[in-house]
Structure to design on (510 residues):
């Protein structure tokens, strides 16, 4: 098995310079996205878009003492260990690669948007022009050439790191211990418990995940598994079975009818007459 | 009401027939344009026509399918009222009929079936089933289309309900078509020009005929004269 790779974002080190956003656009050759109007905030876009795979969020918050905080986080695909997008893709167009990245195959994608609906984070976005779903691919093409993802490569504050699982977990645990020592009581890791990965994108967070708009317990919906494992197979069986069954009945029906006609051509007329009289 | 050509008796009104066929055709087009996402074997529909075109078509048909029952409610009120009141009065007799009906599916005659009204027990079950399935389909479909307005936790469940209802409605409609075309072809005319053969009505819906006579809508003489031709 290929060695697993992990992307690490240490939120406590992020300065919000957005160089990672630019690097992402440059490597993926994505156009500027001017869809968000300026509303007096530092955050550039409201959410990820089909041409923005990586967004530095600037959440504004007042803490219990009335002190202002900017909770800055690099928001993107988590490359989940069990990715809802891939599990529920009707065309099997999304693959969890052995070493970690979750990648959309555009040739197979039909733009149904199920991946976005099945993602606990709602990450994939539909590109209206191409009619394909898009999201961060962890620069799997760069990785395969031995390079870092473009965002990690460009990060000026060493907030984004990238490497093999063991090394990244070691760094994450060390940074977490430092944060706790500095008095960040709620500091935590996200995407890992410090040993095992639930995602190949992990965060070091000084505050609770909800502060950064991340779900505390991200979970792939049971509705998706119900659809995939129960309804899809039963649906095929029922529709196919109904077609076959009716075709069979039709043959038997025509046989029975032709027999009947031979047998009682005369009787039938009387039978109807009797019924009519009864009424 | 008078018999047409002394032989046919009006069963469905023109607007109700229009409602039925718009519902039927849009459902089938919706089913097959949605099928590539439910069944891998139908991927060729996307391949030949283009996934985006098929999805846009599904949306347009969806609007027609969604609006049609409301238009029916206004323009085909008579048939609608009949349909709803018949389903609402589903009784043990209907259940017995549906349970005993089986052998007729393969052309055997079942004797001692209880005489049936405007709709028989099987039709009532089919109508109720389609009303529920189509209702869920229409609303879950609209919710999925405008899914930005709904909680993200809900969306995978909407896909699940949409798919299961599509399957149920399709299987039921196959049975419906089979019963109409193969088992009792006399009924088809009722959904084409609206009238059915008096003998078909006598054989399959005798309680409805009795009801028409009792209400004085047709005279007993007229009915007997028409039936006499089959003797």
């Amino acid at each position: 098995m290929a060695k697993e790779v992990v992307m690490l974002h240490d939120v406590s080190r992020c300065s919000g310079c957005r160089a990672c956003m630019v690097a992402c656009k440059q490597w993926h050759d994505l156009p500027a996205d001017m869809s968000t109007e300026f509303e007096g905030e530092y955050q550039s876009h409201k959410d990820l878009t089909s041409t923005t795979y990586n967004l530095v969020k600037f959440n504004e918050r007042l803490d219990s003492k009335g002190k202002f905080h900017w909770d800055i986080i690099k928001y993107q695909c988590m490359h989940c260990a069990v990715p809802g997008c891939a599990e529920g893709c009707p065309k099997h167009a999304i693959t969890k690669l052995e070493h970690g990245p979750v990648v959309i195959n555009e040739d197979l994608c039909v733009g149904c948007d199920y991946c976005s609906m099945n993602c606990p984070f709602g990450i994939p976005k539909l590109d209206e022009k191409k009619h394909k779903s898009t999201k961060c691919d962890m620069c799997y093409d760069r990785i395969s050439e031995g390079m870092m993802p473009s965002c990690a490569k460009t990060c000026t504050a060493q907030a984004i790191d990238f490497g093999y699982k063991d090394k990244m977990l070691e760094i994450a645990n060390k940074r977490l211990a430092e944060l706790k020592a500095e008095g960040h009581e709620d500091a935590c890791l996200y995407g890992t418990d410090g040993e095992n990965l639930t995602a190949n994108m992990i965060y070091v967070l000084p505050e609770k995940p909800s502060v950064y708009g991340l779900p505390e317990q991200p979970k792939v919906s049971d509705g998706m598994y119900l659809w995939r494992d129960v309804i899809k197979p039963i649906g095929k069986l029922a529709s196919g079975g109904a077609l076959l069954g009716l075709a069979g009945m039709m043959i038997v029906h025509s046989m029975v009818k032709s027999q009947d006609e031979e047998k009682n051509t005369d009787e039938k007329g009387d039978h109807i007459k009797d019924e009519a009289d009864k009424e | 009401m008078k018999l047409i050509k002394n032989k046919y008796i009006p069963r469905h009104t023109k607007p109700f027939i229009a409602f039925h066929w718009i519902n039927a055709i849009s459902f089938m087009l919706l089913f097959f344009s949605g099928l590539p996402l439910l069944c891998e074997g139908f991927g060729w529909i996307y391949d030949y026509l283009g996934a985006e075109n098929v999805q846009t078509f599904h949306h347009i048909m969806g609007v027609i399918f969604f609006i049609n029952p409301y238009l029916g409610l206004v323009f085909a009120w008579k048939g609608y009222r009949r349909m709803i009141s018949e389903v609402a009065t589903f009784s043990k007799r209907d259940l017995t009929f549906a349970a005993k009906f089986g052998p007729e599916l393969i052309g055997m005659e079942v004797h001692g079936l209880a005489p049936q009204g405007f709709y028989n027990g099987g039709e009532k079950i089919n109508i109720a089933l389609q009303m529920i399935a189509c209702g869920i389909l229409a609303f879950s479909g609209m919710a999925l289309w405008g899914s930005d307005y709904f909680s993200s936790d809900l969306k995978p469940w909407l896909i699940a309900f949409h798919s299961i209802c599509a399957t149920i409605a399709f299987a039921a409609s196959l049975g419906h078509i089979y019963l109409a075309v193969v088992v009792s072809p006399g009924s088809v005319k009722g959904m084409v020009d609206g009238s059915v053969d008096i003998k078909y009505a006598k054989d399959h819906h005798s309680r409805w005929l009795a009801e028409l006579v009792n209400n004085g809508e047709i005279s007993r003489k007229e009915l007997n004269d028409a039936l006499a031709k089959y003797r």
